[in-house]
From TrEMBL:
<feature type="active site" description="Proton acceptor">
    <location>
        <position position="735"/>
    </location>
</feature>
<feature type="compositionally biased region" description="Polar residues">
    <location>
        <begin position="168"/>
        <end position="178"/>
    </location>
</feature>
<dbReference type="InterPro" id="IPR006650">
    <property type="entry name" value="A/AMP_deam_AS"/>
</dbReference>
<keyword id="KW-0479">Metal-binding</keyword>
<dbReference type="InterPro" id="IPR006329">
    <property type="entry name" value="AMPD"/>
</dbReference>
<feature type="binding site">
    <location>
        <position position="713"/>
    </location>
    <ligand>
        <name>Zn(2+)</name>
    </ligand>
</feature>
<feature type="binding site">
    <location>
        <begin position="516"/>
        <end position="521"/>
    </location>
    <ligand>
        <name>substrate</name>
    </ligand>
</feature>
<feature type="compositionally biased region" description="Acidic residues">
    <location>
        <begin position="58"/>
        <end position="79"/>
    </location>
</feature>
<comment type="pathway">
    <text>Purine metabolism; IMP biosynthesis via salvage pathway; IMP from AMP: step 1/1.</text>
</comment>
<dbReference type="GO" id="GO:0003876">
    <property type="term" value="F:AMP deaminase activity"/>
</dbReference>
<feature type="transmembrane region" description="Helical">
    <location>
        <begin position="12"/>
        <end position="31"/>
    </location>
</feature>
<feature type="binding site">
    <location>
        <position position="445"/>
    </location>
    <ligand>
        <name>Zn(2+)</name>
    </ligand>
</feature>
<feature type="region of interest" description="Disordered">
    <location>
        <begin position="159"/>
        <end position="236"/>
    </location>
</feature>
<dbReference type="GO" id="GO:0046872">
    <property type="term" value="F:metal ion binding"/>
</dbReference>
<comment type="similarity">
    <text>Belongs to the metallo-dependent hydrolases superfamily. Adenosine and AMP deaminases family.</text>
</comment>
<feature type="binding site">
    <location>
        <position position="790"/>
    </location>
    <ligand>
        <name>Zn(2+)</name>
    </ligand>
</feature>
<dbReference type="GO" id="GO:0005829">
    <property type="term" value="C:cytosol"/>
</dbReference>
């Protein structure tokens, strides 16, 4: 039967391939054999050319052998007359192997090549040579070994390093000491948490690559150094870790891994971590900074950074007596305040007198006194200092140095996670009753008018339309209208309403359109519905908004562990706004222990000027601050405002920062002279509100009243000088995403630990895509960041907007439980809640820096993380101040 031509062709191709492969294999074998033969011939030649001199180390060994006659005698008794010869044969075999190693090192040949002192059956010539060596060694006596002249002069004495735990070795070169992990690379935090460091390397580990092993010939002694990502622990003057410290760390397994407070270490966690405890103990002591500048230029850079930090200390208001140093209020007063927070306690008026001069209030002890009690830096001084910071920011050397330090901080945090992530995870598991869900977290930036989600607002509107359709709610077009009539004029019914028709949610159309975003505050696109449901100064005196606010506060209290800082608006159009806002709070009994309040001022001078409401910028300053000074000097003049101010903790400036503006010069017009229709620059607003708030706080502090901090919106968009002004004047800021554009300011914000209340989901709808948000970078570098919701009505979908913010961040940026708890802890520190509340939420020593102020049973943040953050910040401060920084024990107030 004829074979198919295609089958024949395939068979021929297969045979040809087989023959070709066989030829290639045979060729490769002979090429390899020839290369090995050449190497072995070279070794034989080297051996024959060795210098004929004795070695000091060999003589020492001979002396030791002579001292050991007794042992040899015992050996002969045990093994007969041939025992001595056998022992000598073994000794010579060891000598030959040592000689081979020394010879290979001498000529720089890798010891990974075949050992010629071992018999190789496939190499006949080498086998014969080795047999001759063996016979010669057997026939030699102990006294004649020095005549063999096998060991060249000058070789170092052989030393066997003591064995460490599996996967570790110590390589010494000079005075340097290096701890390198030879066997493993780090596993995932979860995978390594349940396994000991002494487990086998079969699963989940990677061995060191041969390419990572290098050979050096330092100080005349060859040493093999393992290249790995482990940190070098050098014994020179470049850091503080000495050889004795390293030995103490290895020998003492002291509890540096403080999983809980009071110095206690959980045994289960310690056993599970294994050698990670030792690594953490060593790395936590590592000092990677040098305080001496390497050159004059670098010294000048750090002096300029010091100047910036010192300028901030001159401006920012801090309380003379920290809250934790004040006498505790009696329990009776606290219980009375909780039972009736709206009760007015009469306070005697003081004799202080104040006058408005050049846009800033000046306070005097009496009307006849001419000495200002609380002087504040002038506008010219401020703008001069701000321009000085802007000049420093533009210097190339400063930008480079700050960029390098920020990169270093980021990489240092990643290294910390590689070494200590398992320890943090186990510490959190060991803390009873605490996890992310039941630790306190504060929404540090949320606007009151948008504090509810869209579904909540829809249900409320439908409820009112069904229950109170005949309620007169607005005066429009010369007549009063009921709620039902308003909806009829809009051609709407309760049945027609849905969240899409409500149209309050931000979408693609709002990106880079702040004007469209503001229109989302109008339900169904109608400003009259906003006036009815989301305003407190309307015909019904804000009753609907008060009821809606109470429902939100009840949801907040039901969660127990969520707090919020709501912003309510004062516009500066008239002085009576303060009394109106205070009466709304008092009359509607708006209060919750889970919420505190900030005042926000929209920067809308140009709008009010065009409408003829104000004549100059001075009018806005008068309308905002004169009532505050009046109620501070004499609380009975505005009793409701006095009670309301006890719940106010901050002052905010809001509006679109992306609007173009002129950068202020050193000599700007006074507020009374600002009569044009252009809106003043951001820094102009900020200074005059800072200066008056600074004076007000000094006055309130002198009278024992709570103070108000400046915490404006800043750095969401616009020019970088907004952030420079805020650096000098503000306690905390909201947003701050533009810090990514200035490494100098970013580094300054890190060193000063200025709080950033960031809202990535809000930024995603307005100015910056979520994946480009710098929040994870800021967090890794150690900036004081927290998460906030900003506008739940426009941004979020659930009634727990803050948890939604955390959950999205955790999934997108792969934040661990420890990361989330640290961010939540930051939010409590940034917030304006009372000292008593923070003590309950964070621990009685929360005001102490570092792990001493952390209580894992309250915060669920391991001391490992807190110590890393604190020590890193201290090292950076010492680096900037060239080792002369004064680190306070307590946090800033």
């Amino acid at each position: 039967m004829a074979m198919d031509p295609s089958s024949t062709s395939s068979l021929q191709l297969a045979m040809a391939a087989l023959v070709g492969a066989s030829l290639m294999a045979i060729s490769a074998f002979y090429i390899h054999k020839r290369a090995v033969d050449q190497v072995l011939d070279r070794l034989v030649e080297i051996r024959r050319k060795l210098p004929q001199k004795s070695d000091t180390h060999f003589e020492e060994e001979e002396g030791e052998e002579e001292d050991g006659d007794t042992e040899e005698g015992d050996f002969e008794e045990d093994f007969g007359s041939d025992g001595y010869a056998i022992m000598r044969q073994q000794s010579q075999s060891r000598l030959s192997r040592s000689l081979e190693d020394s010879t290979l090192r001498r000529y720089g040949i890798s010891s990974s090549l075949p050992n010629v002192s071992v018999r190789n059956d496939w190499l006949e010539e080498d086998a014969k040579f080795d047999e001759a060596i063996r016979v010669r060694a057997q026939n030699c006596s102990a006294s004649s070994l020095d005549k063999l002249n096998f060991i060249p002069t000058g070789l170092p004495s052989l030393q066997t390093p003591r064995r460490l735990e599996e996967g570790q070795s110590i390589n010494r070169s000079g005075s340097g000491t290096r701890l390198a992990s030879l066997g493993r690379l780090p596993r995932t935090p979860v995978g390594n948490a349940f396994e000991s460091a002494e487990d086998s390397d079969e699963d989940g580990t990677e061995h060191a690559n041969e390419d990572d092993i290098t050979y050096s010939n330092e100080n005349g002694a060859d040493s093999k150094v393992q290249s790995s990502s482990a940190l070098p622990f050098r014994g020179d003057g470049m850091n503080y870790v000495q050889d004795k410290n390293y030995r103490a760390t290895i020998n003492d397994a002291k509890p540096a891994l403080d999983l809980h407070d009071n110095g206690k270490v959980d045994k289960t966690s310690r056993n599970a971590v294994g050698t990670e405890t030792i690594l953490y103990s060593t790395i936590s002591q590592l000092r990677t900074t040098v305080h001496e500048p390497t050159n004059i230029e670098e010294e000048e850079v750090w002096k300029m950074i010091q100047e910036c930090l010192d300028l901030r200390k001159r401006y920012v208001f801090t309380e003379k007596v920290a809250p934790w140093m004040k006498e505790a209020e009696p329990e009776t007063n606290i219980s009375e305040m909780r039972s009736d927070p709206f009760h007015f306690v009469p306070v005697e008026a003081s004799k202080h007198h104040f006058r408005m001069e050049d846009g800033v209030v000046h306070v005097y002890a009496s009307e006849s006194d001419t000495t200002e009690l609380f002087p504040v830096a002038s506008a010219t001084e401020f703008f001069t200092d701000m321009h000085h910071i802007l000049r420093i920011m533009s210097i190339g050397n400063v930008r480079t140095a700050c960029h390098h330090r920020l990169r270093f901080l980021e990489e240092k945090f990643r290294l910390h996670l590689l070494v200590n992530a398992d320890g943090e995870f186990l510490a959190q598991k060991s803390a009873p009753h605490r996890d992310f869900y039941n630790i306190r977290k504060v929404d540090t930036h949320v606007h009151h008018s948008a504090c509810m989600n869209q579904k909540h607002l829809l249900r409320f509107i439908k409820s009112k339309l069904r229950k109170e359709p005949d309620e007169v709610v607005i005066f429009r077009d010369g007549k009063y209208m009921t709620l039902k009539e308003v909806f009829e004029s809009l051609d709407l019914t309760g049945y027609d309403l849905n969240v899409d028709l409500l149209d309050v949610h931000a979408d693609k159309s709002t990106f880079h359109r702040f004007d469209k975003f503001n229109l989302k505050y109008n339900p169904c696109g109608q400003s009259r519905l906003r006036e009815i449901f989301l305003k407190q100064d309307n015909l019904i005196q804000g009753r609907f908004l008060a009821e809606l606010t109470k429902q939100v506060l009840l949801d907040l209290e039901a969660s127990k562990y969520q707090m919020a800082e709501y912003r309510v608006s004062i516009y500066g159009r008239k002085q009576s706004e303060w009394d109106q806002l205070a009466s709304w709070f008092i009359n509607n009994e708006i209060y919750s222990e889970n919420a505190i309040w900030l005042i926000q001022l929209p920067r809308l001078y140009n709008v009010y000027k065009q409408m003829g409401i104000v004549k100059s910028f001075q009018n806005i300053i008068d309308n905002v601050f004169i009532p505050l000074f009046e109620v501070t000097i004499d609380p009975s003049s505005h009793p409701q405002l006095h009670v309301f101010l006890l719940m106010v903790v901050g002052f905010d400036l809001v509006d679109d920062e992306s609007k173009p503006e002129r950068r202020p010069t050193k000599h700007m017009p006074k507020p009374a002279e600002w009569t044009n229709e252009f809106n003043p620059a951001y820094s102009y607003y900020t200074y005059y509100f800072y200066a008056n708030l600074y004076t007000l706080n000094k006055l309130r502090e002198s009278k024992g009243m709570p103070t108000i901090k400046l915490r404006p919106h800043c750095g969401e968009a616009g020019e970088i000088d907004h952030l420079a002004a805020a650096f000098l004047l503000c306690n905390n800021i909201s947003h701050g995403i533009n810090l990514r554009k200035s490494p100098v300011l970013q580094y300054l914000y890190y060193l000063a630990q200025i709080g950033l209340a960031m809202s990535p989901l809000s930024n995603n709808s307005l100015f910056l895509d979520y994946h480009r948000n710098p929040f994870p970078m800021f967090f890794q570098r150690g900036l004081n960041v927290s998460l906030s919701s900003d506008d739940p009505l426009q941004i979020h979908l659930t009634k727990e907007a803050l948890v939604e913010e955390y959950s999205v961040a955790a999934k997108v940026w792969k934040l661990s439980s420890c990361d989330l708890c640290e961010i939540a802890r930051n939010s409590v520190y940034q917030s304006g809640f009372s000292h008593m509340a923070k003590s309950h939420w964070l621990g009685n020593k929360y005001f102490i820096r570092g792990p001493g102020g952390n209580d894992i049973h309250k915060t669920n943040v391991p001391n490992i993380r807190i110590e890393f953050r604190h020590e890193t910040w201290k090292e950076e401060m010492q680096y900037v101040y060239l080792g002369r920084a004064i680190i306070p024990v307590e946090i800033d107030t």
